[in-house]
Amino acid sequence: MKTPRLEPPIGRGEGEPPGGVQASGAASAPTLDAPGLHALGEALRAAATRKQHRQAVALIGPQAWGQAVAALLTPSVGRRAFDSAEDLLSLARAELGTSTDHLIIDLHEDVNPNVLGALSGTVRGGGLMIFLLPTRWGAQPTRVTRLASSGGPPPTARFPQRLRQMLTRAALVLTPDAPLPEAPSPEGALAPTPPIDAFCRTDDQMRAVATLLKVAKGRKRRPAVLTSDRGRGKSSALGIAAGYLVKKGQRVLLTAPHRAAVEPVFERAAQLTGQPIEGNTLSMGAGALRFVPPGQLLAEPHEADVVFVDEAAALPIPILERILQRHARVAFATTVHGYEGTGRGFALRFQEALTRHGAGARAVQLSAPIRWAEGDPLERLMFDLLLLDASAAEDEAVRAAEAEACVVERLDVAALAEDEPKLRALFGLLVMAHYRTSPADLERLLDAGHMEVFALTWRGLVVGAALLGREGGLSEGLSAAIFEGRRRPRGHLLPETLSAHLGLEQAPMQRALRVIRVAIHPAVQARGLGGRLLEGITRFAERAGIDYLGSVFGATPQLLRFWTRQGLTPIRVGVQRGKSTGERAVVVIKPLSARAHALLDGARARFLAGLPDALTLVMPDMEPALVEALMREPADTPPALDAATWRDLVACAFGGRGFALTAWATRALVTAMAQSPEFATLTPLTRRLLIRKALLGHSWEALVEADDFERPKEAMAAFNEALRPWVLRWGGPEMAALAARFEPHQEVEG
Questions:
Q1: Same domain, 431 and 328
Q2: Has residue 701 been placed in a domain?
Q3: I need a labelling partner for 626 at 20 to 30 A (CA). Which of 147, 164, 366, 507 fits?
Q4: What is the mean pLDDT of each run of 10 residues along the chain (750 residues)?
Q5: What CATH number is attached to the domain comprising 50?
Q6: Same domain for 454 and 501?
Q7: Are the C-beta atoms of 225 and 332 separated by less than 8 Å?
Q8: Nearest CA to 568 among 541, 549, 546?
């Protein structure tokens, strides 16, 4: 991986005499006014320092000229420069939590909005962020690679043009053929110095630390929720609180989507304790701060006095709920406007989860900036450029919306790019609804040639949104290579999955439409608006000659219920959990054309036939509610069993024959039960018991541990009792007569 350059490669060195400096390269490269640029840079820094604001500077011209000018505007000390290397996003993540006086980012080869959002937050008040832009953008290979699908339309350049337009309005712009602008004078009042104690920089931060300490020592089941914009000291507050707790011998578990995101937490704790960071742990006596990834935190038992979850908005709500269930003392912190996943809807969605669990949360918002002063122009520029503060329509304005009165619109992206209010409303809704929405989604929406954008509107207000990708339609040769595992073409996730994982070799040749994001305004959810939007998308797909509609997403019972109501059925679930979310990916599909029906109609049956074995052998940790959602069918079909197997089931349910002796028969029965709509009429405890024992293969002791049973024999009796009505219902009169011969008694494990 390339590392950031601390010096741009071209430019006047600190010891070089003033005067004209010519960039290397072509002989016609523009001559630079070095003394004027030095003076301009000093004036810019002085004016910014006085207000503790950051200044954006745009250098539009040849790359070598821009690099040389950037070097002359900034001193070498305290300057960092990034080019557009292929690993730039990884480098940007590595810089999270760090700070610099001046930042130079070269955008000649690539414009990555996530990188812009990440790196802009590293510039301190009084610093410069310098953007190097070409006079005009062409079709750069890096942009094409990231945004284009194989064989699809090339990407456009609407996002780069948006960047250029906003920089022209908000930044100091220099070009080779224009005179240097007049240097600004450092006018205005000095920025106030924030209150400082030994560690905390603002009153907000002090309140946050006090709240975190109270979570660790106060009443159980009273979690804290910290929210802030970038640069407000959230991670430092977590580190300060962790340091105090470690010094007092407390065990603090820290989790986040990525280890790099919590490096500032460790650094602040190390400052306070004076102890070194050793990998994922900082220790002091009996106390310790330890990082554990979310999936590992939930998969394995961990002893902790308190759990801190950083960047919580970048994790799915079900994962946060499971952490909340497992640990009595938890604090959640997240960036509300950040490239990691803007998380605008986090507080709303997570508050609903807290209410479900009866947890009275302590909420703290960090508003006062630490790295720069209020009213910082660079922060405003980034918010506008990346729509970090985009908001959906106000709740009251759309609360009366009903599905029948809503209109489904297929949007022209070029027109949408020019309609800032509608773009902000649509993107704000996507941000509010989806935990992973980031600035890169804005770029994809505007520039990816294979994307389709739909809005659901009510009286002109956006109440629903969907982003979709056109996939498939590939050649026979490429489809064969996908099936054989030799090719993985970019931008064809759905057909590639169907071919490579389900053996449907013809799938990549057919045309697919994949739903990437779908969102409904929170104020009008559960009213059928999502169905209305999907109906409109389906009609468009049928008219456009699309063969099948589908989606791939992290599986939760709630999401699966939504998709199956729209007629899309699960045909694959991932064996491995996602590293950051802990969820398994599920593929849902709906054939639209005759040839898609011929290809896909048997996929659901094959999935259901193989799922019980897969659950027992490789997915015994799947949540019972998810198993139920994956298996539910609209038809009530009894299992196809011979008379001898039915007699075994009667002996198990009524005669107490050991489960180990009738496991196959019982699993077949429970599989059919779980697919029946009538299964939902059983109590949640009964459904969990049947699935855990018969389909996931849990021991009786594990069932006692997991649910409301005092001893194994109680669980056995409840299991047998749950089977009896279904054995009588599907076994017929002969089995009912056989059941009557047994005296009721509890099972004895055989």
A1: no
A2: yes
A3: 507
A4: 36 32 43 90 92 94 94 86 57 61 89 86 91 81 75 88 94 94 71 58 87 89 85 88 95 89 90 93 95 88 92 79 88 70 54 66 83 91 92 92 97 96 93 76 92 96 96 96 93 95 96 95 92 97 98 91 94 83 88 97 94 94 94 90 94 88 92 95 95 94 82 92 95 93 59
A5: 3.40.50.11040
A6: yes
A7: yes
A8: 549
